[in-house]
Protein 1
Amino acid sequence: MALRTLIARNPMRAAAPAASRGLKTFSLPDLSYDYGELEPAISGEIMQLHHQKHHQTYITNYNKALEQLDAAIAKGDASTVVKLQSAIKFNGGGHVNHSIFWKNLAPVRAGGGEPPHGSLHKAIDSNFGSFEALIQKMNAEGAAVQGSGWVWLGLDKEFKRLVVETTGNQDPLVTKGASLVPLLGIDVWEHAYYLQYKNVRPDYLKNIWKVINWKYASEVFDKESA
Amino acid sequence: MSLFNCITNQCPLGSNFGSSNKLGSCGAVPQLGGGAQRRDKSRNSRSITAYYGLKTPPYKLDALEPYMTQKTLEVHWGAHHRGYVEALNKHLAKNDLLYGYTMDELIKVTYNNGNPWPEFNSAAQVWNHDFFWESMQPGGGEMPTLGLLQQIEKDFGSFINFREKFVEAALTSFGSCWVWLVLKREKRCLAIVKTSNAINPLVWNDIPITGLDVWEHAYYLDFKNDRAKYINTFMDHLISWEAAAARMARAQSFVNLGEPKIPVA
């Protein structure tokens, strides 16, 4: 009897709005600090634009793409489903990456810039030789990204080691390896630094370490390597 | 051994030559003909001669105000474009094999059919930005005329439709991109092409007619995140249809767009 009700109700479900069909829509996460609190490493103007405009746009377009995907799946429209993949990867990736990025940053009053202690510190030393060597490596790889992308410190859960990787555009770290978990990501798209640093990306990379939230990275590391 | 054996995968030194990118280590560097020996061989200096210079835009840096500010030109041309030229010269100083190529050839060769060498990024971006400055003019915008307009109407239906498609292409490109109006050599028609990072239509042997830089650095100082406003400003006030028409005229010496008028006896 329950099954009959379900089938009878199906034609209605296709016409109902996405939210009531159970499709989760995403919204802009709040920052745990004010826009200006990361100065002088990152200007308040950049933080506001980055959060309220860029990240919001990724979320808006991601929601749109998901709705279209949902409709295409319901209709069995395979070619549209495939066509939407790049928009989903780009906008969804943008949302995922920036959500991590905001947590990777913290004002100095909340521990921003303070190097990690404990197990993450030990792992950095054994994987890269020293904390300074890691910074240098990430700066070099971040500066070398052509066009738009991210530089990551990741944990490879399979091989139990730390890696430095770069991804292009808004590709999340997992596109470089299914067992990779992002601990720290630095946005090297021009919008992340241009108003303040213009074309001198290396200066942005040098300064951002002053507001990097190693506490969060340590928490993720401890949780994922348990 | 001819000059081109090293560039194609026929180098007798080994099959993974092309992928190693260590061209400087190739022992059998062919000597180019004539006076192409640019390396200074004098004993007391190892001075590197510059091979490419930074071309200045065909207008003063404030000439595009208020649509593209002097500040943007100063950074975009003076820092980014100059940086690409310097990077290219540094690459060429280490690599004898790439002497003597014209810029177009250099781009095609270093593109390496989709697996680009490090030199490609610098070379292509130098060319792209030269092309970009020349694609704009003070008092630009409006519409093309005469033959170019006719061809646009033929290939896109109307100028409005072309403009819409061009703007849409620029809006929907992900990441750091360029948008081009090209004349396709094989198909003998105009088309809109999006490319990412440094890639340009020369690598597919098509003829660019005009282009728009949609990297964030091109518009961020003037428009912040408002890419749509930048693109529309370019179309309305910056794009040089004169430059495009000149390129179109030149392109027609390579591509026959019309059917020959053979009289019926």
Protein 2
Amino acid sequence: MKAFLKRAKEHESKINKYTEEYELGRKHLANMMGIHPDEMTQEHINEAIRYLLPSGLFDKGSRPQFKHPKDILPLNFDFPFDKAGRPYHYQYYTLLPNYHCIMSEAAWRMECLREEEVRIGSTGAPPQEEMKHLSEEYEWMDLRTFLNYFKSNHSEVVQVNEHNRFVILMTKLSKMRLREQDVAFLKQFGSPKTSEINVMDTEEIKKFYVNEQGRKFRTKNGYRKSAIAQVTVYAEGEGILEINGKGIEYFESQYAREQVLFPLVLTSSLNKVDVHARVEGGGEMGQSGAIRHGLSNALLPFVSQQMVNKLSLSGLLDRDSRVKERNKPGQKKARKQFQWRAR
Amino acid sequence: MALCKGKTIYHTLLGIYKQQISTSYFSTNKVLSNMYKDRVPSVQSIGELNALCIDDKPVEKKIRIPAKSEFSSAVTYDPIVQKFINILMRDGKKEKTREIIEQVLENIKMKQIENYHKATTDAEKAMVVTDPLKVFHGAVENCKPLLILKTIVKGGSGYRVPVYCHERRRLRVGINFIIKTCDTRKRKVPLSTVLATEILQAYNNEGNAVGKKHQLHKECEAQRAFAHYRWK
């Protein structure tokens, strides 16, 4: 109890200190930028800090920020127990009271529904028709919305394990014969499934340009592992293949040559299309992978919809994001470590 | 007392929904598996691609795991052979292992052609399989075990318990058996010839690689008494 009181006082003094500093700094910034402090918004502040303190860190949470402390620290520090030290919530000692409250309620409802089914079955009535399950129409909460739900409302930090258990419980509940109160309880944690499918942009796929001589063509970039390729595909051609001024003999190994020819063989357009490519960087297999990536993206407008589906299903249109791992301090290479010594 | 009520309700209900949930997953949950949950794996071979009924309707845009650099529409491509190459490879020398395995398949074909010409009657000739890929597949299938021994620590001591496992694990164990029987011999003879003889013998259910599988099965039978340790 005493520790709790101490922490509450420290929290209050912290917030007061930080708000004073924030207000002071805000006025100085407004002075520097030439704006009235009342007209300055958070966007102005973000721009100014990106200009004054640029950083190349990947983690956006560790870059310099300038916000009101209420956005960073939780303001309400309410006492969850009374003067004698007894907590109000009946699951306070689980450390995640609101999460376990929801789970236990769902489990309790499942037990009640089961008892009802047993009662109905013991009377000897014929089985009723099957109803539509709720889980077919509703999608349960994503990981991110789940974590935000508890963080913003109740300031609880929930783990990934708990999200898995949540999803399993709710789907089990939704497959039973539900009452109206159960349906209302379940609809809080789900959103109806949208019938719209996220489809590839058909306009972007079918874009192409026309040459001075009247030939259609399309250029696309391909990437793999620090190799960059620029591939142009001309329609209504004879089957010319050019890579950096040479033919397919530019590659020496059989497997690199197979990679370049793979999308053409799949779409059966070997002798119907001209290909000109320019490659830089990387090694042999990296360059051939980059050409493959660019080729399959450049072929799309000159090919039927069936082949476009095939190319997307086979995974040729996506960039391979595997890259060499960085070396770390205190180790020899990315994973190799120094020899272990007892002392 | 408000405290005691809450505690008792919590413990009873925890017991109820833990029983219902704990049997559904037995592997450790990592953040990566959730990150890649929405990613759909791309297709393994061209036969699968053609088998998917693809209409003229546009396909749903999903985050797909991109195709690997060995995937090709050539007739010589096989996913199991690629797995074998990756396991045989050492120090990242892939071209060397590819040459070895091309030689192995050649050797298998030469030997089977000899057997074909040695066989006199038509019935015997029909029994001889000359396709090296089919021989390869058959040999790997004959080396795959059904159960595997896994050490489970209970009460301070580790017991070896027979356990089911999925296809990927069994494939890997089967390939390891083939490779390890060939590594022990002297290296005056090139690896490709040794491997070829092993694979032919495994196709006919003979040899040391299949012997290792039988040995594993015998040990699993001997440890049958501890099979129930798998569930606690």
